[in-house]
TrEMBL record:
Residues 269-294 are annotated as: Disordered. The keyword 4Fe-4S does not apply. TPR repeats lie at residues 70-103, 138-171, 172-205. It comes from the Eukaryota. It holds the Pfam family TPR_19. This is UDP-N-acetylglucosamine--peptide N-acetylglucosaminyltransferase SPINDLY. Belongs to the APC3/CDC27 family. PROSITE patterns: TPR (PS50005). Gene3D superfamilies: Tetratricopeptide repeat domain. The keyword Transferase does not apply. SMART domains: SEL1, TPR. Residues 285-294 have a biased composition (Basic and acidic residues).
């Protein structure tokens, strides 16, 4: 079977977790003491390094000095998100958005956290609001595409991923997602086209190879579809030998192909196989051949 939307969200799309800016502040304005500013900078470094407890400690110190600092609230939201404390993350991010509704970073992170919490409608609201603030964000449109897929709003999922392609025509993940959504819509030809495009952009894209094989196996409206399915299962396994589903499917196709071949032989529809055409050459009737010597 194809990857589920949840698996796509968790395992396939390389969402950025680098905790990069931009910071919406001027270093000398509204940051209190130099010590306060230094704590914030150190906290961001800790966050980037995955040292979340140290980042949290410094950010909470900053928040004590300035409870309305949107950047501190946003970064705290990221810390708690990374620690899987989604309730606390959402609390800080909601406060940040309430203070500055036009802060893209806080709004975007709030959409991410709402999505992770399973609050899909709030996630849609926050991410679409973020899209009006920064319509050039590839990561945002990819996330919206996954969100709409989970919400079964497939036309919107298509539009979100087409927006990614519009911004970056070499984005293999967007083509993968388009293939997945078109398959969900029963439009297998379009699914195949988009999976092939993803593979053209990234030849070792194991997930696209696997899903393309599934499409061919399910479609089989052409004589060679089953062979194509086998070819792409084997290509997926060559990239990632741990794809158990691909190994099982490839073995099943090989088995079914041999059974059909064997049935045709029994029914006399094909000539018998020659195990070794040279081995028993002396037993062949050559009386009809012209002799080369008298």
């Amino acid at each position: 079977c194809l990857w589920s939307p949840g698996e796509i969200f968790q395992n396939i799309i390389p969402f950025c977790r680098c905790f990069c800016g931009p910071e919406n502040y001027e270093p000398d304005q509204g940051w209190g003491s130099p010590e306060h500013q230094a704590h914030y900078i150190d906290a961001v470094d800790f966050l980037t390094a995955g040292r979340y407890e140290e980042a949290k400690r410094l950010l909470l110190m900053c928040l004590e000095q300035d409870s309305d600092n949107v950047n501190v609230l946003w970064r705290l939201g990221q810390v708690y998100d990374a620690k899987d404390d989604l309730t606390t993350a959402k609390m800080h991010l909601t406060t940040a958005v309430g203070i500055d509704p036009d802060n893209f970073s806080a709004r975007f992170e709030l959409g991410i956290v709402s999505h992770r919490k399973g609050d899909l409608h709030d996630a849609e609201f926050q991410l679409t609001e973020a899209a009006t603030l920064n319509p050039q964000s590839l990561d945002l449109w990819l996330r919206l595409g996954v969100l709409y897929l989970e919400m079964k709003q497939l036309d919107k999922a298509i539009r979100a991923n087409l927006k990614v392609v519009e911004l970056d025509s070499q984005n293999e993940v967007a083509f993968f997602m388009l293939g997945y959504v078109y398959h969900e819509m029963g439009q297998d030809n379009k699914a195949v086209q988009n999976y092939l495009q993803a593979i053209d952009l990234k030849a070792d894209y194991a997930d696209a190879l696997l899903n393309l094989a599934v499409c061919y196996q399910e479609r089989r409206d052409k004589k060679r579809d089953l062979q194509k399915a086998l070819d792409f299962y084997e290509r997926a396994l060559a990239v990632d030998s741990g794809l158990e589903d691909a190994a099982v499917a490839a073995a099943a196709i090989k088995g079914s192909t041999w059974k059909r071949r064997k049935r045709r032989l029994v029914e006399g529809r094909n000539p018998p196989l020659v195990e070794d055409p040279i081995k028993n050459a002396s037993e062949l009737d050559t009386s009809h051949k012209m002799s080369t010597h008298e």
